[in-house]
Design goal:
With about 280 residues, this protein is an alpha+beta fold. It contains 7 helices and 11 strands. The longest helix is centred in the last third of the chain and has 20 residues, at about 195-215.
């Protein structure tokens, strides 16, 4: 967490709000979140550049700069990019790790309570190398049922684990893997290679629909996720599997099961509906 819908929401917010602004200065207060760059080098290379675009790749938020460099943020569990125009609640900035001062008087903060997320600065060659290992983007037109079926065909691992493997499908984490598998009626522990072409088509549709719907509701907030304005996501109220262990299945009424047996993460499933 954040997964694809949350990072997509943040990236879209930032693109609307800060694209075209110039970074005047950078202050890093917690340098342990930095990767591939020091505080001094970050400030030197970024100050004076213009933010051309904000976008998402997998679970990354990417800021394209006029210099050609890219600021690459991986929020992981508790990271957030927050725009402060002077009205942001102070408590949201208590865990700010760095501040990018913008030329219009606002500031862009990277906040991270547990500091497990990272901020990197990459040139185009390094960024291409870094992202080459990432898997298919599930919202791209090329992510077809046939493509997913090919990706699953050779794996003996549990389908849920494969779905969360960022080298296979980029951006899907625990929440949305649970949701998609429930929607598709597939047991999360089943070997990926045993998923039929028809089931792969249903799973592809489930992945795309749940991600799209969550983006429309600005992501899922259980604890720490905030969008660029510091607001919580609204999709948590529409979850049908994740977080509902012990509650009735919304499809058949049987009690949902929660287990850590598949991949060490919480898996919620209906033993009756998901085969």
């Amino acid at each position: 967490m954040p997964e694809l819908p949350e990072t997509e929401t943040i990236a879209r917010d930032l693109d609307r709000a800060v694209a075209g602004t110039r970074i005047e200065s950078v202050v890093v207060t917690k340098p342990d979140v930095l990767r591939e760059v020091t505080s001094r080098t970050l400030a030197k290379r970024v100050s004076g550049t213009r933010i051309e675009r904000a976008w998402r790749r997998a679970k990354l938020v990417v800021l394209d700069l006029s210099s050609g460099d890219r600021i690459v943020v991986q929020p992981r569990f508790t990271g957030a990019l927050l725009i402060d125009d002077g009205t942001l609640p102070r408590e949201l900035l208590d865990y700010s790790t760095m501040r990018f001062q913008l030329d219009d008087g606002r500031a862009l903060h990277y906040r991270d309570i547990r500091r497990l997320g990272t901020v990197a600065l990459m040139d185009p060659e390094r960024f291409a190398q870094y992202t080459a290992a990432l898997g298919a983007e599930p919202l791209d037109p090329d992510f077809t049922a046939e493509h997913l079926s090919v990706l699953l065909r050779g794996s003996r691992q549990a389908i849920k684990k494969v779905l969360m493997d960022q080298r296979v499908v980029a951006g899907v984490g625990n929440i949305y893997a649970n949701e998609a598998l429930w929607r598709a009626g597939i047991d999360p522990s089943r070997e990926a290679r045993l998923v039929s072409d028809g089931e792969a088509a249903a799973l592809r549709e489930a992945v795309v629909s749940v991600l799209t719907e969550s983006i429309a509701h600005r992501g899922t907030s259980f604890r720490d996720y905030r969008d660029a304005s510091g607001e919580r996501g609204g999709f948590v109220e529409r979850l049908e599997a994740y977080g509902r262990a012990g509650q009735p299945c919304l499809r058949c009424g049987r009690r949902l099961v929660g287990t850590h047996a598949i991949d060490g993460r919480m898996t919620v499933l209906c033993a009756s509906c998901q085969k």
